[in-house]
Write a structure and sequence with these properties.
Layout lengths: L38 E5 L23 H11 L3 E5 L9 H8 L5 E5 L7 H9 L2 E7 L2 H4 L4 H11 L5 E5 L5 H10 L4 E3 L14 H10 L4 E4 L3 H4 L10 H10 L4 E2 L16 H6 L1 H4 L3 H16 L6
Parallel strand pairs: 1-2, 2-3, 3-4, 4-5, 5-6, 6-7, 7-8
Helix pairs in contact: 6-7
The protein binds (1E,3Z)-4-hydroxybuta-1,3-diene-1,2,4-tricarboxylic acid.
(1E,3Z)-4-hydroxybuta-1,3-diene-1,2,4-tricarboxylic acid binds next to loops.
Length: 307
């Protein structure tokens, strides 16, 4: 059961039977000063449920995490832009994300979840609203058996839109999944380092399967979620070698993000300021930091600004 540290009884408190934690109530101001223009390339908005109800088929009900709280956090951390990723709890209703993008004054873009039957007009509306990719989730605890046929049809539907596909899987599933994922067209972005098994180490077979995918230049990866992957806990020393390997081996195809508001976290809730302070540990030079935080996400999400 939960170990809630904040907001008990408030509108943002988890439901009484929730087994996850609410986001950090007062993140520290990071010691690391990110370069101007830095992008948080993986975060979410949830609700508020009164305006944007959660999907009936969801596997969890998150705390309300509205756009204004995300933008306040962005400014507090010194970041400039957000890529808002549609999470399973909102299903294929991308309204909360689109509303947040619309209110960001051009400082947010999105990754949507759509059905294979999505009308062309809706795809156009999503594009106009700032969406630049779709997410295919393979986590059994979030989607049951991944609807692979639907994913193939969606990939066909978005062909030619300049979008990419974000894939969320666990590395121990990759031996089975890799042929399917490799057969997807276009640019493919791997969520959360491919969720390696930290206990198995950076040279493990499972992480090497993730690195093998990355040898194909169509693949990108997010060096995100130390809090989700760690065995040791904060300050996430055990995750640093994984992030560093990705940043150093694939400096032009790696992204960073907060994953705020950290849905489904049960062990502890990270201090988002401390997550920013991990950046120089995985990207030790200014050149690597600029690529990770600016050049790469801008190329993927705001290519028109990098012409
Ligand atoms: C994340 C991670 C999670 C949730 C989702 O779509 C989702 O519901 O992505 C998770 O539970 O691992 O990307 O923030």
């Amino acid at each position: 059961m939960n170990q809630h540290t904040q907001s008990a009884g408030s509108k943002s408190a988890p439901p009484a039977d929730a087994d996850y934690l609410p986001f950090h109530p007062a993140p520290s101001r990071p010691a690391f000063k990110v370069p101007a223009g830095a992008v948080d390339a993986h975060c979410h908005v949830f609700g508020p449920a009164a305006l944007f109800p959660f999907a009936p088929e969801r596997k969890y009900t998150p705390v309300d995490a509205p756009a204004e709280t995300l933008f306040t956090l962005r400014d507090h951390l010194g970041l400039s832009r957000n890529v808002i990723v549609q999470a399973t709890c909102h299903g294929t209703d991308n309204s909360a994300m689109l509303d947040a993008i619309a209110r960001s004054e051009g400082q947010a873009r999105g990754v949507a979840v759509v059905s294979p039957m999505v009308p062309d007009a809706e795809l156009k509306r999503l594009h106009a609203g700032g969406v630049r990719g779709v997410r295919f989730n393979f986590l059994k605890r979030l989607v049951g058996n991944a609807p692979k046929d639907a994913y193939v049809r969606i990939a066909d539907r978005i062909a030619g839109m300049g979008w990419h596909i974000v894939v969320y899987f666990e590395s121990h599933e990759l031996e089975d999944l890799a042929p399917f994922i490799r057969a997807l067209p276009g640019t493919i972005v791997i969520d959360h380092k491919g969720r390696p098994d930290l206990a198995a180490g950076v040279d493990s077979v499972t992480f090497s399967r993730v690195l093998d995918l990355m040898e194909d230049e169509r693949f990108w990866i997010k060096a995100t979620c130390p809090e989700r992957l760690t065995v040791a806990g904060p300050p996430y020393d055990d995750v640093v070698p994984f992030g560093r390997r990705l940043v150093e081996d694939f400096p032009d195809r790696v992204l960073w993000g907060t994953d705020w508001p950290h849905p489904n976290m049960t062990s502890h809730m990270p201090d988002d300021g401390a997550l920013v302070d991990m950046i120089p540990r995985i990207a030790p030079s200014e050149d690597l930091q600029r690529k990770l935080l600016i050049d790469n996400p801008m190329r993927l999400y705001w290519p028109e600004e990098r012409a």
